[in-house]
Write a structure and sequence with these properties.
0% strand, Complex1_LYR_dom, 5 helices, LYR motif containing protein 1, 129 residues, Complex1_LYR_LYRM1, LYRM1, 57% helix
Length: 129
């Protein structure tokens, strides 16, 4: 739910604010799939705190490409949360034709590139942290 809020004249401003409001509304109305009040409260807290943290982290971005990528990531995470009924990012596995890192061994540049290219859009903010 990573998006950028750029001050004043950004062409993305209304889109970013609209997306932020949608995420906060989802956080306020979210019901956990287990229907347990404790799970619902924890997931609501996760949605709102994650959104606030990532929006604040990206509020000073100015590159239109990076802002657009953040918007697409937030939209993807929102759709995945609604579809799969879980607010948490889906795990990412080792991509095909890539080797898992072995303890104490250097990873080749080709393997690193394969892994970097295979990171889905909805998890980019987690990888950057």
């Amino acid at each position: 739910m990573s998006v950028s809020i750029v001050k004043f004249t950004s062409p993305y401003r209304s889109q970013v604010l609209s997306l932020y409001r949608r995420i906060l509304k989802l956080g306020a109305t979210w019901t956990a799939s287990s229907n347990k009040p404790s799970d619902t409260a924890a997931e609501r807290e996760f949605i709102t705190s994650e959104a606030k943290a990532l929006f604040r982290q990206n509020q000073n971005l100015t590159d239109p490409k990076v802002i657009s990528d953040c918007i697409h990531e937030a939209q993807a995470r929102l759709e995945l949360a609604n579809h799969y009924k879980t607010p948490y990012p889906r795990p990412v596995n080792v991509p095909p034709n890539a080797l898992a890192r072995r303890k104490g061994k250097e990873q080749g540049s080709v393997q690193e590139r394969i892994k970097k290219q295979s990171v889905p859009i909805y998890i980019k903010s987690k990888v950057d942290q």
